[in-house]
């Protein structure tokens, strides 16, 4: 049966999330959760090298033992990523019976949610999922899209956000706003940002908004990709 997963973006900042297992799959989940600001409770008798690194850093509380039911106390999400399918199944059942959303890495149908392949460019989040049909395809598509939507899309999003704030603050009606926003989105802004052509960027803004970079409070620093633009 084809599952109709509902796509949402979760704000997990400061929320406790349980990850069961310490192998490469668990480490990938932990990395994504930390990048989203979650507080991770990591439970596994042993950790792989990537998981050790994450467990030593901020935001992770590590418990070196097998899963126990009390690990579910106070968490908003659960990721069952141990190498033991019986442990994953039991933890998933317990979590679901408590109404906690759960991801099961070796038996997706036993859980409520799956994780898409994804990458960020500033506020832009591009995610790909196949309903579990082919994670390898999700990964390849993510890699292709990362090339198409390069680092310059981080600064582009900052610029579009600043332009949008200025337009909305300037009054006018929704139809006018929409026209300006699409003029910017359909322009060569990304191309100019990639080339470091600040004068070109400034020109496009002036054409669309009548305001330049300085009017929007943006300097060269804002127009360069930042490390956090590409966080997992
Ligand atoms: C259902 C889901 C549940 C979940 O984990 O959330 C799930 C399940 C399973 N994955 C398996 C295998 C692989 N998973 C990957 C990679 C990723 N898997 C991810 C998500 C998901 N995997 C969810 C569905 C997403 C969708 O709808 O597409 C990604 C996208 C996101 C992430 O994990 O962060 C991440 C890529 C991140 C990136 O690079 O961008 C690779 C590729 C590789 O390793 O090179 C392989 C080997 C190749 C292959 O099998 O295709 C197996 C069989 C295990 C076995 O063989 O025993 C199962 C279990 C089953 O299918 O029953
Ligand atoms: N969803 C996905 O993206 C993918 C899923 N898989 C599946 O994910 C599972 C995990 O894969 P890997 O990380 O490579 O496994 P792994 O074998 O490297 O690690 C398993 C981890 O589980 C821990 N563990 C074992 N018993 C436990 C218990 N009772 N409580 C808590 N932790 C326990 C171990 O200490 C170890 O850290 C595999 O079963 C595989 O079928 C594999 C590839 C991708």
Automatic annotation (TrEMBL):
Gene Ontology MF annotations: ferrochelatase activity; precorrin-2 dehydrogenase activity
Residue span, Siroheme synthase central domain: 121-146
Swiss-Prot/TrEMBL keywords: NAD, Oxidoreductase, Porphyrin biosynthesis
Keyword NAD: yes
EC number, as in UniProt: 1.3.1.76
Chaperone in keyword set: no
InterPro entries linked to this entry: Met8-like, NAD(P)-bd_dom_sf, SirC_C, Sirohaem_synthase_central, Sirohaem_synthase_N
Source domain of life: Bacteria
Enzyme class: oxidoreductase
Gene3D superfamilies noted in UniProt: NAD(P)-binding Rossmann-like Domain, SirC, precorrin-2 dehydrogenase, C-terminal helical domain-like
UniProt pathway annotation: Porphyrin-containing compound metabolism; siroheme biosynthesis; sirohydrochlorin from precorrin-2: step 1/1
Biological processes, Gene Ontology terms: siroheme biosynthetic process
Catalysed transformations (reactions): precorrin-2 + NAD(+) = sirohydrochlorin + NADH + 2 H(+)
Pfam families assigned: NAD_binding_7, Sirohm_synth_M
Record protein name field: precorrin-2 dehydrogenase
């Amino acid at each position: 049966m084809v599952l109709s997963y509902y796509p949402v973006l979760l704000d997990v900042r400061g929320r406790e999330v349980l990850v069961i297992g310490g192998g490469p799959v668990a480490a990938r989940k932990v990395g994504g959760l930390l990048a989203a600001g979650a507080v991770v409770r990591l439970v596994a008798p042993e950790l792989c090298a990537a998981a050790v690194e994450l467990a030593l850093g901020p935001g992770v509380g590590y418990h070196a033992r097998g899963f126990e039911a009390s690990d579910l106390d106070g968490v908003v999400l659960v990721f069952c990523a141990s190498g033991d399918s019986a442990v994953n199944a039991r933890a998933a059942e317990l979590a679901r019976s408590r109404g906690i959303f759960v991801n099961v890495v070796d038996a997706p149908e036993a859980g409520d949610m799956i994780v898409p392949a994804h990458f960020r460019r500033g506020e832009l989040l591009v995610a790909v999922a196949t309903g579990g049909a082919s994670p390898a395809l999700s990964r390849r598509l993510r890699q292709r899209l990362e090339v198409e939507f390069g680092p310059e899309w981080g600064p582009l999003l900052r610029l579009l956000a600043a332009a949008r704030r200025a337009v909305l603050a300037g009054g006018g009606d929704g139809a006018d706003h929409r026209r300006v926003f699409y003029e910017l989105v359909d322009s060569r802004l990304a191309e100019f940002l990639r080339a470091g052509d600040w004068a070109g960027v400034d020109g496009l803004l002036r054409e669309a908004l009548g305001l330049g970079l300085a009017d929007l409070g943006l300097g060269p620093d804002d127009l360069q990709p930042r490390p956090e633009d590409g966080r997992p």
